[in-house]
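Need tokens for this chain, all 217 residues.
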Amino acid sequence: TLSHAAIPKVYDFFEENEKIYLVMELIAGRDLEAVLDAARAPLDEQRVGRWALQICDVLHYLHTHTPEPIIFRDMKPSNIMITDDERVMLIDFGIARIFQHNQRKGTMIGTEGYAPPEQYRGIADPRGDIYALGATLHHLLTNIDPRLETPFTFHERPIRQINPQVSPEMEAVVMQALEYEAERRPQSAQEFKALLARGPGLAAAAASLPTTVTVVS
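Here are the structure tokens for all 217 residues:
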């Protein structure tokens, strides 16, 4: 039911030999984990920032989806593909969940290192996707895999201490997204996008993106 330029289209589905199959759009590109593996070093801040702005745009679409908001719950480099023309595609909605206010706590699900603290308690909240995006950006800018570190220790690894080429503005907004308490993070994808746009060279990139880019199927 989702229709957004950064979400692969599902054309059909069928059952064969008691298995369910999806027929999906083919994305020409690489996921960000493969990009990091090939670089073997932190990625360029401007490039990462342009991707982050696009990711905020698709998160805004999901979090404001009607009739019910959707929480992605598994933001990480391997679930973000970059096409040959540098467009972001968000893949693998296998654990995405409809958001309900005052919902019952569920089972912890996600990827350790990227998942926010509240997700370990079974809480699905839009600000959890903000944290996971912050963890993803920290990984891209430092080349330090959070899956190999103690959870929730990003503040022991300041970005500029590892990669001095990153601007103070970018470091500040990423570290804010990684706050342990959800109330201290950017409260929406649009707020996170606006904070990112203050970074060097990203205002023009942010201005070139519409508020929400959708495609009508």
